[in-house]
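Subject: complex prediction, re-run

Hi both,

The earlier run crashed halfway through, so I resubmitted it with identical inputs.
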Amino acid sequence: MATAKDVADLAGTSTAVVSYVFNNGPRNVTPATREKVLRAAADLNYRPNALARALSFGRTLSIGLIVPDIANRFFGELARALEEAAAARGNILLIGDSSLNVERERSHVAAFVERRVDSVVMVSLSDDPDLAPFAKAGIPIAMLHPIDPGQQASSISIDYRAAARTATQHLVDHGYRSIALVNGPTDAAGSRQHRDGFLQAIRACHETIESIELHTDISRAHAARAALDILSRPSRPRAFYCSTDEQAHGVMFACHRLGLAVPDAVAVTGFDGTEHSAYTHPPLTTVRQPVIDMAERVIALLTGQAELPVHEIAPFELIVRESCGPHLASST
Amino acid sequence: MATAKDVADLAGTSTAVVSYVFNNGPRNVTPATREKVLRAAADLNYRPNALARALSFGRTLSIGLIVPDIANRFFGELARALEEAAAARGNILLIGDSSLNVERERSHVAAFVERRVDSVVMVSLSDDPDLAPFAKAGIPIAMLHPIDPGQQASSISIDYRAAARTATQHLVDHGYRSIALVNGPTDAAGSRQHRDGFLQAIRACHETIESIELHTDISRAHAARAALDILSRPSRPRAFYCSTDEQAHGVMFACHRLGLAVPDAVAVTGFDGTEHSAYTHPPLTTVRQPVIDMAERVIALLTGQAELPVHEIAPFELIVRESCGPHLASST
DNA sequence: CTGAAAGCGCTTACAG
DNA sequence: CTGAAAGCGCTTACAG
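This time it finished cleanly. Structure:
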């Protein structure tokens, strides 16, 4: 491919001027010279080499994203939103999919350091991922869920505890007195907040509520298996609070398999507010995370010059649809 | 961050040796020297700069992927498989999400050329994307669906026509005599093959079969809307052949909304064989694409030294589940 | 086996 | 306003 040198030669100028033209600075170029450069560049089909540029510029204009599973709808929507926000600032998003595998997550961290991404957005598989490589390289990192205070990362997240309390309260208000919590697989800050909020709502009720906590992978298959099991027991839960939409899909699948109507026999709530939650049968009541806004905000933070780390709370919203029963006259 | 120079200084050697150690070649290094280098590198927390490496090495060890919508399950599974195959060969996958927007697709093409990806895998929004930037940069490209002979790209795809014929035949064998084809939004090589195969099966039947073709985006929402419309008409189709699982999800949603049982009132087939197709209500009969194998194969091709372009056909499989009715005694 | 040096393709002070 | 040159951090012939 043509290089800046080729363009400079053809235009009868220097590579410095070629650079000035393509970057609109930092020095001015006379219109006549600029015109010659542009013409030569077009003739030679010149495309600046982003690698060489990054090497001398000192920044790669790339942001890394590490997610547990890119095929998961929530992470897909997140990646889409982050890429758009990054592109709007001239940055490219590098996506690393951990495939639910800690070893691969680690190798993405290493690869991102070697590629010198300017910053990274991460949703980790574990509660305490090894962020040292980023720290040593001076690469700022942000998480999009609750994190422990000890972690050297920024976070932008909705208040899981409050959201869990709200959704569980919704179930309680419907009169359900036996509720299962379908939580994530690990004991992470997020899972703890789901549990806390869930229990707060349950304990606030003047009547006794039976509850049970399940742990499943964030996958339809695992959640379905767990739900199939518990729903086959003699005394099955009347309702399920799920910590992700993906798990809610699995639970609803299990209900259908067993001939248990939703919400008449079993009520279900989700968490995330993915677009697909509106297309289940029946449509899912769920907690919506403002993915677009969160993505926009985290990219602005990471590409801006704010002092990091920073911890921000985004607003959530309970979207009431049909998976919990008829609308309540007076809901809180 | 520490550079090779820093490591060389501390180890009392040259940057050449540092390079030889980290790349295991192309020259040998005595165990003693290697040891000193490794120790110095560890002390300084040295991570080779992949950009600088790419610049002098001449290859970036990166492969670009452009998909219409990364949040779509099929593309998510594809990205996952491609990334795994790429990582196994020391390559990183850069994902560009077009967000169903031709302008963004174009900008990904430009960005990938500037980043000097070694090759690209593409699923284009249009039938005839502008691949010239890749061609001029000498970047090989592969598509994972049928393409027109004119295109300067490799392709690895299942035989859409045969697959469409097989799935439609399955519907015909069940006795359905009014079948809708839910095809993609554009007149692309893939859509044409869906139609051809669909019509072949219909015409091969000795009885008259009523058929209609719909075009929708590859999204649950659009397919649902189209299905809601056609299912509300006085004479509704008895079965739907959908060109993607995503559309099949939308059609099934519409059926449920209208109180039409699947498969008793309406039968549905999908296409892609995403993992989620097994979790619909009822589980979806669909055409499975061997995504993992296709991903592995395309990466092998792109990173190998085979003469390109190349056109390969991958095998498909009709997965019979419950969305078309009871099992047939003698199915073809 | 190892070192000094050129080169990959940019950007940016430094002179003029 | 523009050019010559150094520098970003690697790799790899070229000598020794």
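The longest helix of chain A spans residues 189-204.

- K.
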